[in-house]
Amino acid sequence: xxxxxxxxxxxxCLALALLALLPRAFVxxxxxxxxxxxxxxxxxxxxxxxxxxAADPAVVLDSPVLAxxxxxxxxxxxxxxQAFQGQRRATLKQELLAAVEASQRGVDEAQNDRIxxxxxxxxxxxPTAEPLxxxxxxxxWELLWTTSSAILGLGRPPFFRPVEDRPxxxxxDPAGGVARNxxxxxxxxxxxxxxxxxxxPKQRTAFVSxxxxxxxxKQGATxxxxxxxxxxxxxxxxxxVGVRFKVFTLFGLLPIQAPDSATGILQVTYLDENLRLSxxxxxxxxxxxxxxxxxxx
Length: 297
Fold this sequence. Notes:
Elements: H1 2-21, H2 24-27, H3 35-38, H4 44-55, H5 63-101, H6 112-123, E1 139-146, H7 149-152, E2 169-173, E3 178-185, E4 188-198, E5 240-250, E6 254-257, E7 263-271, E8 275-280, E9 285-292
Antiparallel strand pairs: 1-2, 1-9, 2-3, 3-4, 4-5, 5-6, 5-7, 7-8, 8-9
């Protein structure tokens, strides 16, 4: 029995190798034309001995064993591929975080080329296929880096710009349909409250950002107009929200009702337990770190 088991294992290994190397037609049992004609005649006695030998259960390749071996090999290959992807994702994430840490949220543009190269590589390894349905998305996210000059406040007077030692936060709750942006300036906090909803393909242009010259949030900003980037992916409503801004509150004191034109689009292109990558319809990129599952400020 031990010898039979060893022989079966050997034949399984040989079969796997043959399955990988031989043409599909041969594996499927389709005869290769002309082979019988080139074989030398075989005597009836020898043919009989060959038939009896092939019928020996110790030698015959058991098809269920082969199927199980092929399945096991497939699972092993898939597991190895998943492990490779996980390791690659962890490496890219570490490199990206190191680059954004030195960028002052994007004010120092020396890191932009490096970050811009790592960004799509990490997007390609997104572990969350449906970010809007994931519980990981709900909560407060701290902005680590962006290409948006409006959010960084680079064109504003110094007292209106976000202070460096306080976070710029974005709260998202897709299930509740609400969002909030919060920044801290020397004169007090600026807050934007908004409604969000999953964005279907037919609604893309309806939510294109039209905030080009609205309030001091856009003062001095050198950005492309809304609609520069419109995601075209299957299942758009699983990754992307339409944003309708409702109230702008300046310096924690002055609420201003947003006009109907205050809209935007936000796509979540990468999401794990503590890191999010997003794209806006102006073509801006965002790297954010989760700080709380609720509103933290």
